[in-house]
Amino acid sequence: MSRREMMKAAAASGLVSMSMRAAGSDDEVAAAPAPSARVSRFEGLAFGMFVHWGLYSQIGRGEWAKHMQGIPTAEYMRLMETFTAADFDGRSYARLARRAGMRYITLTSRHHDGFSLYDTGGLSPYDVTHTPAGRDLVRDFVDGCRAEGIVPMLYCTTLDWSDPRFDADFDAYLRYLRDSVEILCTRYGSIGGFWFDGNWSRKDADWREDELYALIRRHQPEAMIINNTGIDAMGRAGHPEIDSVTFERGRPSTLDRRGAPKYVSGEMCHTMNFHWGKATRDFNFLSPAHVIESLCLCRRAGANLLMNLGPEAQGGLPAYESAAFGVVGAWIEGIGGASSSLYRGRPGVTGDGEDFGLSTDDGVDLYVFDLTATANTDVHGPARRGPGRRTFRGVTGEIRDVRWFDNDESLTFTRTDDGSLAIEATGYPYGTNTVVRVARARR
Ligand code: GLC
Predict the structure, then answer these.
(1) Could you identify the atom of ligand 1 that is nearest to the CA of residue 248?
(2) Does ligand 1 have an atom closer than 6 angstroms to the CB of 267?
(3) Is 255 exposed, middle or buried (0-12, 13-18, 19+ CB in 10 A)?
(4) Which atom of ligand 1 is nearest to the CA of 197?
(5) Cα–Cα distance measured from residue 149 to residue 139, given in angstroms and rounded to the nearest whole number
(6) Positions of the chain with pLDDT under 70
(7) Domain match, 387 and 263 both
(8) The CATH number of the domain where 177 resides is what?
C-alpha cells in the first residue's frame, strides 16, 4: 500500500495519528465531524481522577492479585468478611479532585475480581451488601461528587474472574453484565460516563455491545461511553457508539478526524506508580512535575488525562497521591484555575519540541517546556533547552502583548518570515519553577 492509500484507509476507519496526517494530502479526505454536546462537555472536563478500589486493596499487591497469584475464588472472597470501608468517604475524594483541578472521578464499580461496590440486588453474591461495610459505596461516591460539583463516572469490568458464567455460559454472563449496568444507570441519578474494560481479554468474542450501549443511551443519554482498548491498541476506535478512545499508560496522539463517521474524544489513563490498585511494595511513583507535563501533553493532543490513585485497604485516601495531586492543583491555580485554557483552550498551535499553545477567544496561552533541568539533575539531558527563543506555529491574529502568568513579566516577541510567533522565553525568577511555564499572548 502506498502512504496515500494507507492514509485514506486509516481516515476511513476514523482515526489516524498525527504523523500520518502530515503525510497525506488534504483535498482527498472529507471534513471532520463536529463533537456532540456530550463529547464537548467531556473534553472541557480535561482532568479526572481514576479510583481503583476493591477487595484487592486489602492485599496491597495490585488489582490483579487474585489472578497473578492464582487465589481461588472461595478463598479470595473471604476478603469480603473484613471489608469494612470504614475509611471511605466519597466526598473526601471529590474534595481532593476539586483541589487538584480535576473535574471528574471514575470509580471501579466492579473490577475483574468480580466484586461490586454497590448492591447488585441479588445478581451476584460478591457485592458490598455481603460485607460489614453495610452501605452502598457507589451511592456514597456519587453523592460525594455531586456535593462538590465533580462529575461521577463509573468503571465497569467486562472481564470477570469469579463469575462461573463468564466461562460456562457467556450469554448468561452478558445478561448479568447488562443487568448490572442497568442498575448503575437507574439508581444513582445522572452519571457522567461508563468506562468499560476487559473486552481485550476475548478479542474474538461477540460482546453484544449494541445491547449494552443501547441500554445506556436509553437511561442515560448524556453519559459518555468508553471501552478501554487496552495497552496494545491505544487510540483505536471500536464500536460506533463509543464516545472516546483510550490511551492506557501511553502518550496520546492528536486524532485526525477527517472523514470519520463521528467525532470521538481521547483520554489517557495513567497510574501514579506501576499498579492501579494499592501496592504497598511499589515505590515507583511519578512526581507531580511528571503529572504536570503529562497533563499538558494530553491537552496538546486535545485529550483528557485520567490520573489514578489506589485507595488504602478500607477506602482511605492514599497520602502520596493526595499530596502530589494537590501540587498539580496548585500549578493549575497559577495559570488561571477554573478559567484556565487547560479546560477551554483549543489545541492546534504547535511549538518546537513539546511546546504548544491553547487558543481562547482573546488570545493564545503558550505552554513552554524545559526551561530548566528536572528537579533530579542526574536525569536531565540535552533535551532541557533553557531560556531563549521559542517559536509557535498557528497563532493567528495580531498579538499585542505576551506575558508570563506567574510574574506578569512582559516578553519580547516577533513574527518570523513564515508567520510563526517567536517569543524570547526568560528564565524563572529565583523562588519559582513551574515545570511547564505558561505565557499569555493577547490579541
Ligand atoms: C487494564 C487492567 C486493569 C485496569 C485498567 C485501567 O486494562 O486490566 O487492571 O483497571 O487497565 O486502564
Answers:
(1) 12
(2) no
(3) buried
(4) 7
(5) 15
(6) 1-29, 377-383
(7) no
(8) 3.20.20.80
